[in-house]
Design goal:
single chain; 290 residues; 36% strand
Length: 290
């Protein structure tokens, strides 16, 4: 078995987790491929050489499983690195909330045994793809959580004209618009009042940010629909965020959002469910009367 390891090097706790991975997998005939940045961080801080290990320099690699060590942001970055490789990703949480990276520190040993014993379930998660009317190249134009259209260097609101399958449905006057997958329904979309959705749902969520109309609410549409967007702004430009990767576009540039050609495979321990995460992370359904 080969396992690719990616991680957030901003938290020193990752060093102890890497050491535990080495101790555990060295006896199991498992090869670890460390992301180059993570490899160098470990070597520089532990002052030791890792025998019989390899690091990932570019994205040309193969593995049976990927481990993402960090928070949900690290998991999203790992998903971008995995791309269309069809490698399941298991998230080990060293951050705060951890919906995607849901293996906590005290569950690490159980999770490692589950990997060896093949007691891991895999869920396929929908990606969204973005295209620009000017054909500008985007390094990785896919998102697992959301695409956000945001203001750029201006306090004035945006006007975002949205088309669904070619039909103009609304002109959003707001600070922005979030287009979310079901996986992203517990992220930015939720914070602006978007609905929660099970990750297996076949839908897309459109959630305005600080809408200037009380009658405008989040909208859920099928994930095989095409969404076209035209943005108007006083500053002449706007910002898009793709799972946290940002870029600035001229307002003449139109956007098209569609379902990605392939899914991302999310690995879970067999006893972990979406509703368990809702209850433990968000206190969903908590009745304080009890």
């Amino acid at each position: 078995m080969t396992i690719a390891v990616f991680g957030n090097t901003f938290r020193p706790t990752i060093l102890n987790i890497i050491e535990e991975l080495f101790r555990f997998f060295n006896e199991k005939e498992v090869k670890l491929l460390l992301d180059k940045e993570l490899f160098e961080y470990y070597i520089n801080n532990k002052k030791s050489y890792i025998n019989h290990q390899h690091f990932i320099d570019q994205d040309n690699f193969e593995a049976d499983l990927a481990l993402s060590i960090g928070g949900d942001g690290t998991f999203l970055n790992t998903a971008a690195r995995i791309g269309s490789k069809n490698i399941p990703i298991l998230g080990i949480n060293t951050g705060r909330l951890g919906f995607l990276a849901d293996v906590s520190g005290d569950e690490l040993k159980n999770a490692l045994h589950a990997i060896i014993e093949n007691k891991i379930s895999v869920e396929e998660r929908t990606l969204l793809k973005i295209e620009t009317s000017d054909g500008k190249s985007i390094k990785y134009p896919y998102v697992l959580n959301e695409i956000s259209i945001l203001k750029q260097d201006s306090s004035s609101m945006l006007s975002i004209i949205a088309y669904l399958n070619g039909e103009a449905i609304h002109s959003y006057h707001a600070d922005g618009l979030i287009i979310s997958t079901p996986t992203g329904s517990t992220a930015y979309s939720m914070s602006v009042g978007g609905p929660l959705m099970v990750p297996q749902a076949k839908n897309i969520i459109l959630s305005p940010i600080a809408s200037h109309s009380l009658t405008v609410r989040p909208l859920v549409v099928p994930d095989d629909w095409i969404i076209d967007l035209e943005v108007q702004t006083r500053s002449g430009c706007y910002q898009i965020s793709l799972d946290g990767r940002t870029m600035v576009l001229e307002q003449e540039v139109k956007l098209r959002v569609s379902k990605g050609e392939y899914p991302i495979r999310v690995a879970k321990q067999l006893n972990h469910t979406f509703f368990d995460s809702l209850k433990s992370k968000l206190m969903w359904g908590l009745d304080k009367r009890n």
